[in-house]
Amino acid sequence: PKEERTVVSSFPPAPAIYHERPRASFFSLVMADRFNKVLLLDGRGHLLGRLAAIVAKQVLLGQKVVVVRCEGINISGNFYRNKLKYLAFLRKRMNTNPSRGPYHFRAPSRIFWRTVRGMLPHKTKRGQAALDRLKVFDGIPPPYDKRKRMVVPAFALLGRLAHEVGWKYQAITATLEEKRKEKAKLRYTKKKTVTKLTRPIVCSCLLQISS
């Protein structure tokens, strides 16, 4: 007779949910649990296009995203040049019936929303569903004011990059920079003291000259 062998697995025993639910149902449950969580982003200090690209990708993947403080989003370039570009955009309309579009949003949140919409296939059902997962706000309304907000740090320090590819003077430069800051702090304190002492004398001299 054949010997009966006991197979010892190194994996922990599977939870009951594996046996109680079909495979497809289990994975759909896991994915639903993941995407039910809302990603709360603080727009302050982010570049408009870069943040919009990341948000567009996430909502297409099924993630719900809320962006607050849209009035703090940055636009690269000169303010006057950007204003001229937006004023030119405001002039674009339908000649016969302007109420049919294009629609020009004034609120920062809606401007950001329109930027994200331009990165989505919003005329398809998939794009419409993705756009429905996005919420944008000016300021931080409740209940988001009491929740932890996330940022998108899409930048890298040049010093760290250079150090990791072979630059040998990161520590020396940091030490010299600390010494420079200490000297600058002492110099500024001395300047404030001198200004405080000499200001009454200067004011009295000016009064004497004017009289």
Automatic annotation (TrEMBL):
UniProt keywords, alphabetically: Ribonucleoprotein, Ribosomal protein
PROSITE patterns listed in its UniProt record: RIBOSOMAL_L13
GO molecular-function terms, A-Z: mRNA binding; structural constituent of ribosome
Chain coiled-coil ranges: none
Biological processes, Gene Ontology terms: negative regulation of translation; translation
First and last residue of the signal peptide: none
Record has Ribosomal protein as a keyword: yes
InterPro entries tied to this protein: Ribosomal_uL13, Ribosomal_uL13_CS, Ribosomal_uL13_euk/arc, Ribosomal_uL13_sf
Source organism superkingdom: Eukaryota
Cellular-component GO terms for this entry: cytosolic large ribosomal subunit
Transmembrane segments: none
Family the entry assigns: Belongs to the universal ribosomal protein uL13 family.
Name of the protein in question: Large ribosomal subunit protein uL13
